[in-house]
Amino acid sequence: MIRFILADLRKYWLGSAVIVLIVALAVALGVAVTLQERALRLGSARAADRFDLVIGAAGSENQLVLSSVFLQASPLPLMDGQVLTALSADPRVAWAAPIGFGDSFRGYPIVGTTTALVHSLAGGLSDGKVFAREGEAVIGASVTLKLGDQIKPMHGSAEEGGHTHTELAYRVAGRLKPTGTAWDRAVLVPIQAVWHIHGMGGHHDEVEEGDHHDEHGQVVETHEEDAHHAANPDAPVDETWDAAVPGLPAILVKPKTIADAYKLRQQYRAGATLAVFPAEVLTRLYATLGDAKRVLFAVAAGSQTLVAASLLLVTVMHVGQRRRQIGALRAFGAPRRALFSIVWLELFVLVALGLVLGFALGFAAALAISGIVAGGSGVSMPVGFTREDIGFAAALFAFAALISSVPAILAYRQPPASALRG
Amino acid sequence: MLSLTLADISVSYPGLATPALEIGRLAIPAGTHVAITGASGSGKSTFVNIATGLERARQGRIDWSGTDIVKLSESRRDRWRAENVGLIMQDFHLFPGLSALENVLLPARLAGATSAKIIGRAHDLLKRTGLDRPEQRIETMSRGEMQRVAVARALLRKPGVIIADEPTASLDVESGEAVGTLLLELANQEKSTLIVVSHDVRLTDRLQRKITFNLGQIISDTGAVERAA
C-alpha cells in the first residue's frame, strides 16, 4: 500500500508539492507570530531584569524605561542632581548610577555612567579594564571596536545631523561580557566626561547649571569655546557626588532588599521625581500589545482556516477525478477500508509534511526577525518552542487527520460501478 | 468453478423508460465459456455490473453456485468478488509507477491476502502470460502487454469465474488475437467459468456459447436451446 501511495504522490507530485507548500506557509505564519511574540516578551523582560529601580524626573514612565533600559534615545526631562547625592548616601541603596545620554559613535549610543554600573551590568569584563580616567571608555560586547581604539563622540546621531565633538576623544579601555540587552551596543564612559564635554558643571567646575539644556532635558550645545575646555582625558574618574551635580535624565538604583526597593519607589514617586520598576512598566506595555497580538493571531488563524477550506475543495475535486481509479481498485477486490486508508494517508502525509515544514519555516523566520532586532537594538530575543507548542502542534495534526478523512469518506462511499462507468 | 443462475432481474435507471436490463431466467453452467454480445447500450455493461456485484440488483436472484449475491451486504459482496471473480476490463486499469508484478499483486495486497504462495503464483502467471520481466514498470509496456498483466491479475486468486469486459477492444488485431487465445487457454487450465463481453467477432466465435443482448433483453442464446431440450 505504501508503494502505491508513493507512486500516486509521484504521479501528482506538482499538486502535492503545492499542497505541502500552502500548508507550510499558513502554519509558518502562525508559528512565527507565536514565537516572535514570546521572544519579544522574553527578550525585553530579560533586558529589564538587570535594572531593579529607575528614577527620573516626573514624566512618562514608558519613556523613562525605554531610554534607560533599551537606550532608545528620547528627550527626557532632567531631575535635580541632588537626587543622586541623596541616593548615594541612602543606607537602603547598594549603588546608584546616573546615566547621561546624547552622544553617539558610529550609531552606538555613548552612555555616561559610573564604574558601579559597569561592574554590575554584565557581571564583569571580558577584556581590558574599567575606565579610570575621563578619556577612557568601556564598550558593550557587540560594539565592533578593539581595545585602544579611539572614539570621537558625535553629538546626537549622524542621521540627525549632529556634529563631532573635538574636545575629547575616548580610548577603549575594556569590553563588557555579553548581556543580551541593548547595553551590548553601548559605549560606556565616565559621566563626568559627558558633563565636561557639554560644558555642564562637573562638580569641581563652576559652570552654572540649567541654561545648558532645553526643557526636554537633552543636552544642548552651547558652542561657546570656553564651555568646552574642561575635558581632560587624563583626569582621574571621580565619583563622589556633591551639591554641584548637574541635572540628570535617569538614575539606575540597586536597592539592598526588596522591601527597600518598594520603599524607595514610594519615596521617589512623589513630587518632581518618578521611580519605576522597569519590569512593571513592561508588563503594562505587554497588556497594551496584547490587543495587537490578538489581531495577529486572528490573521494567522484566518489564513489557516482559508487554507483548510481550499485544501478540502482541492481534495474533494481530486477524489472526483480519481473515481475511476478508486472504483477499479474496488472492482478488483480491494476492500473499502483499504481505499479509505489510501486516500486518508495520502492527504495526511502531505498535510503533515506541510505542518513539519511550516514549524521549521516559522522557527527560521522568527530567528531571522530576532536576528534583525538584535542587530538593531542589541536586545537579544530568544526564540524557542515551549511545552504549550506541543499542544498546538498536536491540535494541528489532529485537525489534519480530520480534514483528510473527508475525501477518504467520499472514496469509501463511492459505489464501484458508477466509478467505472464512462 | 462457478455456475451462474439469474432470475427475475430487472434494472432500471431514472429517466429511462425501458429497463436497462431485464432477464427472466439465465443459466450459465460451471466451466462453460460464454460470449455476450450486442450493440452499445444493449445492457452488456449492466449485466457485468450486476453479475459481479459491482452494482446492486434491487430484485431477483443472482446465484453463483449457491451464493445469492443480491442478499449480500456491500462489504460482503466486495469480499465475495475479490475471492471469486477475476475481472478484466477494456481499459486495463493498471496503476502507473508500479511494476507488472506489483500491479498483479496490488488488489490482493490491499485486501491483506498476500502470502509467499500468492507471490509465487503471480510470478508464475506473468510467465504463463508471456511476460518475462516482472519488475518492468507498467507505463513502459505496450497495450498488448498491459492486457496480459491485467489477465494475470484477474487470475491471481484462482477465481471461479473470469469475466472480461471488451478485453480486446482497445488492442490491435494481433494483440487482440493473442489476448483472446491466452484467456481461453488459461480458463481451461484453471478450470474457470469464462464470460466474455465483446463485439469482437473473432473472439466471440471461439467461445462455446453466444448470448446476444438488445435493448436490455436477451434476443438470442446459442446455448439456451440445448438446455430447453
Explain how this protein is built.
- The complex is a heterodimer of chains A (422) and B (229).
- With 422 residues, chain A is of the alpha+beta class.
- Chain A folds into 2 domains: 176 residues, no CATH class; 224 residues, no CATH class.
- Chain A is built from 12 helices and 11 strands.
- In chain A, helix 2 runs parallel beside helix 10 and helix 3 packs across helix 8.
- The longest helix of chain A is centred in the C-terminal third of the chain and has 44 residues.
- Chain A is elongated.
- The two termini of chain A are 27 Å apart.
- Chain B has 229 residues and is an alpha/beta fold.
- Chain B has a single domain, classed as Rossmann fold.
- Helix content of chain B is 37%, strand content 23%.
- Chain B has a 6-stranded mixed sheet, with helices on both faces.
- In chain B, a hairpin with a 2-residue loop joins strand 4 and strand 5.
- In chain B, helix 3 packs parallel to helix 5 and helix 4 packs antiparallel against helix 5.
- The longest helix of chain B is centred in the last third of the chain and has 18 residues.
- The chains are: A alpha+beta (422), B alpha/beta (229).
- At the A-B interface, helix 1, helix 9, helix 10 and helix 12 of A face helix 1, helix 2 and helix 3 of B.
What labels would you give this structure?
heterodimer, A: 422 residues, alpha+beta, 11-stranded mixed sheet, 12 helices, B: 229 residues, alpha/beta, Rossmann fold, 6-stranded mixed sheet, 4-stranded antiparallel sheet, 8 helices, globular
